[in-house]
Amino acid sequence: MGFLLSKSMDANLKKQQEFMLHNSRLQLERQILMQNQMRERQMAMQIAWSREFLKYFGTFFTLATVGLTVGAIKRKKPFLFTPIIPLGFIFAYQMDSAYGTLIYRMRGEAESIITSEHDRLDLPLGTPSFDSIEKARRAKSSLTSFLEK
């Protein structure tokens, strides 16, 4: 009788462990999907911001270019063209950021860094562990309780 009961309990325990593993896997998949959706939304907002900024900066750049060109021609002072050069670089960067291939080049460079220069990505003092987090939490709670006295 004890053997049958033990066998039944072992079977139930195994089913429960499989169920917990399945639930953990589902939860992890959901977290990964949620984080990826949040990353996609943040990137979309960044691209949208770049495009909106480009509208305003493009207008400013056009007005500044026209104004400086007219001023340089009327006053016969070619040095008035000089601000157009750095403004042109900024405009080109914003255009590349909003509509060009900047994001693809950045992604390629990031992949290269991850594969060939991974040591640059290490955190100071290494990756946080459960023990280091618990130690900091205990130290903070003991400090808080000490200050409350």
Overall description:
Pfam families: DUF2368 (PF10166). Keywords: Membrane, Transmembrane, Transmembrane helix. The chain crosses the membrane at residues 53-73, 79-99. One of its GO terms (cellular component) is plasma membrane. With 149 residues, the chain is an all-alpha fold. The protein has one domain (10-117). Helix content is 83%, strand content 0%. It has four helices and no strands. It has helices at residues 2-75, 84-99, 102-116, 130-148. It is elongated, with a radius of gyration of 30 Å. The termini are far apart.
Element layout with pairings:
Elements: H1 2-75, H2 84-99, H3 102-116, H4 130-148
Helix pairs in contact: 1-2
- Order of SSEs: HHHH
Rounded to the nearest angstrom, the radius of gyration is 30 Å
Number of strands: 0
Q: What percentage of residues falls in helices of 4 or more residues?
A: over 70%
Q: State the shape.
A: elongated
Low-confidence stretches: none
- State the domain count: 1
Largest sheet: none
* Averaged pLDDT: 90
Counting helices, strands and paired strands, the structural category is: mainly alpha
